[in-house]
């Protein structure tokens, strides 16, 4: 799987909103600033995440964006699928006909296992787990420099 900037930015935006979960909407300008994401591109990403039911938006002076569900109930797989769709590591996985060697190819079997394991990891990793890792890593980094 090759993640594009769209997927990377989307995951970072979800992590940012997870850090503020339960505190109300977060402005896209704030997310963009903290995560180093161009705001106009972030708005497109947030729109796609909203269409998939992962993000809610609130209009008005105290408006912004927030996770549609608790971060413990949103997986990396959901975010990646919403923004990237299915991206196989090799073209032959979804379409064996593109390669004459596919039917008995030992390499294809390995790529298929890699693909399955990748999705298992994405399905079993929640945004909350990532947010906890991020908080722990930031705390450790702060302690290291003190």
Automatic annotation (TrEMBL):
Keywords: DNA-binding
InterPro entries linked to this entry: Tscrpt_reg_Rrf2, WH-like_DNA-bd_sf, WH_DNA-bd_sf
Signal peptide limits: none
UniProt keyword annotation of DNA-binding present: yes
Pfam families given in the database record: Rrf2 (PF02082)
One annotated GO molecular function: DNA binding
PROSITE patterns assigned: HTH_RRF2_2 (PS51197)
Cellular component annotations (GO), alphabetically ordered: cytosol
NCBIfam families xrefs: rrf2_super (TIGR00738)
Name the record gives this protein: Rrf2 family transcriptional regulator
């Amino acid at each position: 799987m090759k993640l594009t900037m769209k997927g990377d930015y989307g995951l970072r935006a979800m992590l940012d909103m997870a850090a503020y979960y339960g505190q109300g909407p977060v402005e896209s300008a704030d997310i963009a600033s903290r995560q180093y994401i161009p705001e106009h591109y972030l708005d497109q990403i947030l729109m796609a995440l909203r269409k998939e039911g992962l993000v809610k938006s609130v209009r008005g002076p105290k408006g912004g964006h927030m996770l549609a569900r608790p971060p413990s109930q949103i997986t990396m797989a959901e975010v990646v699928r919403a923004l990237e769709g299915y991206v196989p590591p090799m073209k032959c996985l979804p379409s064996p006909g593109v390669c004459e060697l596919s039917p008995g190819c030992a390499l294809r079997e390995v790529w298929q296992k890699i693909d399955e394991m990748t999705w298992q990891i994405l399905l079993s990793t929640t945004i909350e787990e990532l947010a906890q890792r991020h908080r722990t890593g930031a705390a450790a980094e702060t302690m290291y420099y003190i």
